[in-house]
Amino acid sequence: MHIAVVGSGYVGLVTGACLADFGMYVTCVDKDEHKIAMLKRGEVPIYEPGLDSLIATNVKAGRLHFTTELKEAVEKALAVFIAVGTPPREDGSADLTYVVQVAEAIADYMDGYKVVVTKSTVPIGTGQLIEKTIRERNGRFPFSVVSNPEFLREGSAIADFMRPDRVVIGARDPQAVAIMKDIYAPLYLIETPFVITNVESSELIKYASNAFLATKITFINEVARLCERLGADVHHVAKGMGLDGRIGPKFLHPGPGYGGSCFPKDTKAVTDIARHVGCPFEIVETVVKVNEDIKHRMIDKIREACGGSVAGLTLGVLGLAFKPETDDMREAAAIPILQALVPEAAAVRAYDPAAMSNARELLPSGIIYCEDAYDVAQGVDCLIIMTEWNQFRSLDLERLKSLVRVPRIVDLRNVYEPDRMREDGFQYECVGRAARLQKLG
Hints:
Elements: E1 2-6, H1 10-21, E2 25-29, H2 33-40, H3 51-60, E3 64-67, H4 70-76, E4 79-82, H5 97-109, E5 114-118, H6 126-137, E6 143-147, H7 157-162, E7 167-170, H8 174-183, H9 185-189, E8 194-197, H10 199-230, H11 234-242, H12 263-276, H13 282-305, E9 314-318, H14 334-341, E10 347-351, H15 356-362, E11 368-369, H16 373-377, E12 382-385, H17 397-403, E13 408-411, H18 418-423, E14 427-429
Parallel strand pairs: 1-2, 1-4, 2-3, 4-5, 5-6, 7-8, 9-10, 9-12, 10-11, 12-13, 13-14
Helix pairs in contact: 1-3, 4-5, 5-6, 10-12, 10-13, 12-13, 13-14
């Protein structure tokens, strides 16, 4: 089967490479000539573990191709996946400009039956918009519109695609459902659950899932704040909650709030959708507000750890990306935190294993970008753990202490144990954890 994937960003590249690995013949299309030239040279424009080798394997096998020519790709394909960006507008609603442009191009170039698959995260009703656009522009050929949302986590996207929790297919046409099942046959063989529904339900499943996970993250951050006031330990509270099968342990990790390309955009979009149909989504509206408040609380936490102000101090920052195993800086906690602290501090030193190139474009000027964690630590008055990369989890604490000017750590990801850090001579602040467990007897 020939498949076209329009859009060679994060979702499009992962989707195209994985479908090629399933045995499909995939053409990834993008209008960005520089990006396509990079991919043809074997260079991957995004950081995602394992993606470079997966692409190389399938290009070598002749199953994966890259082009800027949409016409040729559409004509060859039975299924055309739309994987372009849907950036937020100022009011939080999703901008569907690129989706509509692709739908128009498909209508112009289609020469027979096509299954048009929406992989981008789009508002409910977009499937109807795509169908209307194609039908009005080209009524000569039959086609089906399918919603097939992605549930990829940055840093583990390939595993998420190859062994997903579920595959959601929203369609009205049984023929389209059958074709989608053929495409995902390798997942059917390993008994992956398939949810077959209508287009609107499929579109809402994506938004509802991300809004719920964002709510779960925000909830545990509010619990962490309560723990700090009451002398409780948020790790123990989260463990006690997560052992309840109705709740589960995932996404119960306190920190400086959620970020990235999905949760901030999708929570704002779903609240905009709800308002437009006269059904305000008040829980998620509150989640959006509280998540912003959490980032400002982290700024206050850093200042308080430094005696009320960072003026005249040198700060060290470990991690800049919104999460580990990605170079994505979109809505990263580092952005508002460093925008607030850089003007106040004497100097800021920073290191991230993957995101420093992107960080330079988004963070304030004047930051000193370092070679590694120990380079960051030289002469700093406070070391801030912003992103929980694995290489920051087992630092040589004695070496670290010998490099810093003041042995002070603000751990926004709770990487280390408070008691041990204080016993090792560090002034240590974290999120929602009691200073020391009270011993009985």
